[in-house]
């Protein structure tokens, strides 16, 4: 035990490790805030500089970038309606309307505090229940990932605004876009039409920047002469009463984030979307209607995506299974330094586990002051005249998209999706379900086919397996409940229980 404590506080007592953690957190915040410059890219680039470093130094820097980058995506999502990271997609739905109301300072301050809170919940779960969570994640079969993907696609009801039909269309469009490229199981081209550039598929970051960023620029061209809203940044730190109000929601969404983060291939973006849907379904009296600047709409996803980061560390350290692209890069870094993540890591090098936990706690502590600083400068972006701001956003989006793979074709995709997103917005369609479909479509496709193969291509055996496992049965029940909640009967029953007229 004393040895574990000493490794836990190693980063705290070493000035160099302390500096690396703080520098990584700072860099992560601002890399995450720039659309297209993903956390994965930042970690991948930095790995090349850490070859000759000690493993502790590399892990300290990476932990800071990981936590800071996931949080940083919320800044551009709130101020510009461009999620800096996929995990901030749900944040933009209510964050940007808050900025348009002049409440950007309060929104960013609140997201910072709840992100730190979610991070601590995730780290505590990692420290206490890492083996339990990793074993649970290992029990997930392909059919369970299929149910999780279908469950995620049902979130279009929460992201579709007033029209569920338009949301379903947008979600289906996203699934279609996500299917473009080589078949992941057979390597045959799908919807490529012999075009070589399509074989690699559509980069969803380019699609995300196009649908959110470029389309918003085109929409804003209709109101160039309107004076920008002056942001109120006099009170950045949220009041205790405001935090106390959203503490129960933050706690519930942290649990969602940790659980989803521990599932390989899920990640913070799915966790954030599920948390947003949970908030929308369970909040009886939101501060404003969801989609119009509800504080619940930024608290839920930001708590979940930051609590998902320690959750993603769980299968990485205990099983050697990457939860997402970032943890895959971290596993590569550990291999470079002569370590092998997996079940034996906890036995052979338990000090490494406690070093990672202590480092995550330190990075999360740095996130609070570094996240609350610089908000006034960021808020000035929104007050910039649109004739200057819009071209800058367009240039920034193009640079970020190009930087993904140094491929100019991605820029063309970004512009094309921007035009499509513009027309979707003009006709009352939401772009959130499109991105949801792009992310979840491939997961649903691969999971279904693997589940069918495991059932011997027998449809009856395939369906029977859903009731032969407790995990599958629970997911089926949750899916059925979600479908039921979309019906008029459910709304009538809940309205009757609350004593309100059914809508």
Blueprint (SSEs and pairs):
Layout: H1 2-8, H2 10-13, H3 15-33, H4 39-47, H5 55-80, H6 89-100, H7 104-138, H8 142-153, H9 156-159, H10 164-178, E1 181-182, E2 189-190, H11 204-220, H12 240-261, H13 268-282, H14 296-318, H15 325-336, H16 345-348, H17 350-372, H18 375-383, H19 386-405, H20 408-426, H21 432-454, H22 459-464, H23 470-485, H24 488-498
Antiparallel strand pairs: 1-2
Helix pairs in contact: 1-17, 3-5, 3-17, 4-5, 4-15, 5-6, 5-7, 5-14, 5-15, 5-17, 6-7, 6-14, 7-12, 7-14, 7-17, 8-21, 8-23, 10-21, 11-19, 11-20, 11-21, 12-13, 12-14, 13-14, 19-20
Would you kindly provide a written description of the structure presented here, covering whatever features stand out?
The structure is a single chain. The chain has a two-stranded antiparallel sheet. It has 24 helices and two strands. By secondary structure, it is mostly helical. The mean pLDDT is 80. It has one domain (2-467). The longest helix is centred in the first third of the chain and has 35 residues, at 104-138. The protein has helices at residues 2-8, 10-13, 15-33, 39-47, 55-80, 89-100, 104-138, 142-153, 156-159, 164-178, 204-220, 240-261, 268-282, 296-318, 325-336, 345-348, 350-372, 375-383, 386-405, 408-426, 432-454, 459-464, 470-485, 488-498, and strands spanning 181-182, 189-190. Helix content is 72%, strand content 1%.
